[in-house]
Design a protein that fits this description.
- With 232 residues, the chain is α/β, with parallel strands linked by helices.
- It has one domain.
- The protein is built from five helices and ten strands, in the order H-E-E-E-H-E-E-E-E-E-H-E-H-E-H.
- The strands form two sheets. Strands 1-3-5-8-7-6-9-10 form an eight-stranded mixed sheet, with no helix packed on it. Strands 2-4 form a two-stranded parallel ribbon.
- The chain starts with 6 loop residues before the first helix and ends in a 15-residue tail after the last helix.
- This is Succinate-semialdehyde dehydrogenase (EC).
- Its EC number is 1.2.1.16.
Length: 232
């Protein structure tokens, strides 16, 4: 195992490994500017035989810089574990770079407090994500909805048939998100307990199940047919 002092050093190593099949990068964190003379190539580094790519304990901003500089095959499994500062304190997160893996067919997502967990896969490729908002002294993000709606910029979702999702609170993203999943046939949604008291500001009751049912009963955007999903 080689200690890397800067992300440029990782790319420099990968330039010489076109036959690489497995890559695990741990604790790739840097605070100092790069002091060497090597510069990454203009074109992404090709790793056509890669089967497994793992990053653990890396900041989100660093991954958005590294991943676009690596050309990955369609049939690869990517694991991003314990990714820190995934959502900024203020404003939306930087878009996650598109991943050229095959269209996913199954989605498992948990959005809870300061953490998000996701498995998005197909038979020959997939993305496993474990990320958190861990800026000490700052409040946790109140809404993962913007992240969820931006997911289609990273992965091809139009072939998803199965969605298993756990969310907190009364989310409003359902109709927009379900429109990204035109072939969805199986849905399992888990919620926190609904409140018996109306919201202090709006006077409305927190009933996430009703919100989801309303979204399912409405036609998808550009269609006259309600969402075809079945709920076991």
């Amino acid at each position: 195992m080689e200690e890397l002092l800067h992300p440029f050093e990782l790319l420099r190593l990968l330039c010489n490994t076109p036959a690489l099949e497995f890559l695990h990068v741990d604790l790739l964190v840097y605070e100092e500017p790069y002091m060497g003379t090597w510069q990454p190539p203009y074109e992404p580094i090709h790793l056509p035989l890669l089967r497994s790519l793992v990053f653990t304990d890396c900041p989100y901003k660093l991954l958005t810089w590294i991943l676009p500089r690596i050309s990955l095959p369609e049939d690869v499994f990517i694991r991003l574990q314990d990714i820190s500062n995934y959502i900024p304190v203020y404003g939306p997160a930087d878009p996650f770079p598109p991943l050229p893996i095959r269209p996913v067919t199954h989605l498992d997502i948990v959005m809870q407090g300061e953490e998000v967990l996701m498995v998005a896969d197909s038979p020959t490729s997939g993305l496993w994500l474990s990320a958190m908002h861990d800026l000490d002294g700052f409040p946790e993000p109140q809404d993962w909805g913007d992240w969820l709606l931006s997911l289609r910029e990273c992965l091809t979702l139009v072939h998803v048939t199965h969605l298993h999702i756990r969310v907190e609170g009364w989310e409003t993203f359902w109709r927009a998100f379900l429109s990204h999943l035109p072939q969805l046939t199986h849905l399992t949604a888990l919620f926190d307990e609904s409140s018996d008291e109306p919201d202090d500001d709006t006077g409305e009751f927190d009933c996430p199940t009703a919100t989801l049912c309303a979204a399912l009963s409405q036609p998808a955007e550009g269609s006259d047919v309600p969402c075809p999903v079945s709920t076991p």
